[in-house]
Amino acid sequence: QVQLVESGGGLVQAGDSLRLSCAASARTLSRYYMGWFRQAPGKTREFVSAISWSTGGTSYADSVKGRFTISRDNAKNTLYLQMNSLKPEDTAVYYCAADPSSVAAPRYWGKGTLVTVSS
Q1: In angstroms, rounded to a whole number, what is the distance separating the alpha carbons of residues 116 and 79?
Q2: Residue 88 — φ and ψ, nearest 5°?
Q3: What does the alpha-carbon distance between residue 32 and residue 7 come to, in Å, rounded to a whole number?
């Protein structure tokens, strides 16, 4: 069982930066894949980024590549998403997710944190 709690969302202007955090409670995350997803108003939830907790290997959606960076802190069991050069189209509820196999269909989800980017 993994519990995930996101934080760090807020209202920012286009071009600003924001860092999201996801605190994970689990005995060990070493065999988990973790990721960030987002759901904009009126749209379906979409993949943003993922990381292998053990290897640090990462992947990104094309829409955020070069602007967002996913990372993890092993000591704190915390996942991060550094978001730079934010655009109004990045406005969404951002969810943290985890799964022991892959992030294609994560088993565990946080409740989300809202990011609003004004133009």
Answers
A1: 20
A2: -55, -30
A3: 20
Q: What are residue 11's DSSP bridge partners?
A: 116
> What is the spatial distance between Cα 84 and Cα 31, in angstroms, rounded to a whole number?
29
User: Which token pair is 58?
Assistant: 């990462």
Residue corresponding to tokens 């292998």? 52
Q: Give the C-alpha separation, 28 to 82, whole Å.
A: 23
- pLDDT tens, 55-114? 999 999 999 999 999 999 989 999 999 999 999 999 999 999 999 988 889 999 999 999
Strand partners, 50: 35, 59
Length of the chain: 119
